[in-house]
Write a structure and sequence with these properties.
CATH topology of the largest domain: hpI Integrase, Chain A
Number of strands: 18
Strand order of the largest sheet: 12-13-11-10-14-15
Largest sheet: 6 strands, mixed
Number of domains: 5
Distance between the termini: 120 Å
Radius of gyration: 34 Å
CATH architecture of the largest domain: Orthogonal Bundle
Length: 574
């Protein structure tokens, strides 16, 4: 074999001193090194390393007889019998990621372009150099952020000390200020952190060759890897250099939930994945409500939510009541909570009112508190009969026929058209439109079945004959399966927020200046029915109102009712 350009470097691998071999790739040379006992490949340093000993030295000499070792290299590697004690010679390290390493002795020839603190993590932009990569990998929870093209690591004091000692990046005053920030987590931010990643994120992408698998790109940490390992069917692919999960939307949502608990946002097909909670999985929902609570508080709130779930309150009501009750619990504390008298509770509600919250929000807080004492503790209702704020008497905003025509004319997307048209034609709430399933549309009987709407009520509404043509064209083009209007994620209904955004943009484009929302389509439907002579009792049934008083409010905005009134001003000029 021709002379081989091999450089030998002493390293420490998992507490053991070894020889690292650095050379240009030669297949014959690699094959011979593989025959040496105890040889290992370091993925971190991208080199082969061997145990230290005379047998290994002879094996190296056999591979490359003319290997010229300098005196320094001879005594470092122990090839010379007169080699001095090398205990003081600094060794670099190839220990596993995240474990403590020996300090690298080589001084850096480059400095970071930018180091920023973002959300409890340090983001570092640095030109590539092998020695610097080895050093950065040695720091706590360090990983390479592909999207932001920077190194990210935990913003711990140990990492800060190591970075400052190596790079001398901060001035003394700035460095002391940064130390103070790290010791105060709630103030974890720098004024100039624009170059750092905007929070930690993970991505689920399609496998390049296997349709049944998805690749997960995420920050490699102990907790994030553990989260991926909780997914059924997951496996690690050496060929892909990462973790794979089965191509299943439920598993993706489950992974998003695990990552969310760790402060990592999951993106799927370029879309930020909303953490959907399974309607049937009440234990997961309850766990979501109990996060970040102390043990004693958690027991109280768990009993509170147990009863709300047991009484089959809607998820929105459970979330609202629990949030209000947690605020009450945080303010007054758990000690003696069951023995609070009416005056203390009223004082708390008065303080809420002083914070200028909406009257409806104040009523929600009162209802949440009353639920705890009257339902959870089963105390007499009359003891906590609190004084309520006066209700605002607001009339609904109604669109005229001309405004509706202008608004409908600017919506060009067939799916968006169908959703907005069906909302006005049947007086549906935005959530009712999004939750429609294909089986709810009966084209033979010309009806729409509204299932489990507000108040857990079902109702039947008529399907407009004018809408049938557009609906059939939509069904033919989009081929919906379960949900009539599917969302961006497979198996998910259309987002309520997205539909509201579509209406808002259409309103602005049509030049409608009234303060109207998507719900104004329902108000307009009821008002126009009343103006056309439809009985108010029938309108009540079509809208699903439990109380006729709710429906009667449309009489106040009915044009037909108002036109019957003759102003005395009209008689002045006759």
């Amino acid at each position: 074999m021709s002379r081989s350009n091999i450089a030998i470097e002493p390293i420490t691998h998992r507490g053991e001193k070894r020889w690292a071999l650095n050379f240009g790739y030669e297949k014959k040379l690699v094959d011979k090194i593989k025959q040496i006992p105890g040889r290992r490949w370091s993925e971190t340093r991208k080199c082969w390393h061997l145990p230290i000993g005379p047998e290994i030295a002879e094996a190296l000499s056999a591979i490359s007889p003319d290997l010229n070792l300098t005196p320094a290299a001879n005594f470092r590697t122990g090839l010379s019998s007169n080699a001095p004690d090398n205990t003081d010679i600094p060794f670099s390290s190839t220990t596993a990621k995240g474990r403590p390493r020996h300090k690298v002795d080589i001084r850096p020839k480059i400095k970071p372009d930018h180091i920023a603190l973002r959300g409890g993590y340090l983001a570092i932009k640095l030109a590539y150099k092998r020695e610097e990569v080895v050093f950065l990998r040695s720091l706590e929870s360090a990983y390479w952020h592909k999207t932001e093209a920077c190194w990210v690591m935990k913003a711990s004091e140990g990492n800060l000390l190591a970075l400052q000692e190596r790079y001398q990046y901060w001035e003394q005053s700035d460095y002391r200020k940064l130390e103070g920030i790290l010791r105060t987590p709630e103030k974890n931010s720098l004024t100039d952190a624009s170059s750092g990643p905007q929070g930690l994120c993970a991505r689920v992408v399609a496998h390049p060759s296997l349709d049944d698998w998805l690749k997960v790109n995420f920050p490699y940490r102990v907790d994030t890897i553990a989260a991926v390992k909780r997914i059924a069917g997951r496996r690690y692919s050496k060929a892909e250099g990462g973790w794979l999960i089965p191509n299943n939307i439920q598993l993706i949502k489950e992974l998003a939930g695990h990552f969310s608990d760790l402060g990592v946002t999951l993106y799927y097909q370029g879309v930020k994945l909303a953490i959907g909670l399974d309607r049937r999985d009440w234990s997961t929902r309850q766990k979501h409500l109990l996060k970040k609570l102390e043990t004693n508080e958690k027991d109280i709130v768990r009993a509170y939510t147990d009863l709300l779930i047991g009484m089959r309150y809607s998820w929105n009501t459970i979330k609202t009541y629990t949030a209000c009750f947690k605020r009450y619990l945080e303010r007054l504390g758990e000690e003696g909570l069951a023995d609070r008298n009416r005056e203390e509770i009223q004082e708390y509600c008065n303080d809420l009112a002083k914070s200028n919250i909406a009257l409806s929000t104040l009523n929600q807080h009162i209802n949440a508190i009353k639920f705890y004492y009257e339902k959870v503790l089963n105390q007499p209702r009359t003891v906590y009969e609190l004084k309520r704020p006066r209700k605002n008497s607001r009339l609904p905003s109604v669109l005229s026929a001309g405004e509706l025509r202008r608004l409908f004319a600017v919506i060009e997307n067939k799916k968006h058209q169908t959703m907005v048209y069906i909302a006005y034609s049947a007086g549906l709430r935005v959530s009712e439109v999004c939750q429609l399933q294909t089986r709810d549309i009966d084209l033979e009987r010309m009806t729409i079945h509204i299932v489990n709407s507000k108040g857990s009520k079902d109702r039947m509404v008529p399907l407009s004959p004018v809408l049938v043509g557009l609906l059939q064209a939509y069904l033919l083009e989009y081929q919906p399966t379960t949900w009539l209007f599917a969302g961006q994620l497979p198996g998910e209904p259309y987002s309520v927020r997205s539909l509201q955004t579509i209406f808002r943009r259409a309103k602005e484009k049509a030049g409608v200046r009234k303060a109207v929302t998507f719900h104004s389509l329902r108000h307009s439907y009821a008002t126009h029915l009343l103006e056309s002579g439809t009985d108010v009792r029938l309108i009540q049934e079509l809208l699903g109102h439990s109380d006729i008083k709710t429906t009667l409010k449309y009489t106040h905005v009915s044009q037909q009712t108002l036109q019957k009134v003759r102003s005395p001003f009209d008689d002045l000029f006759l």
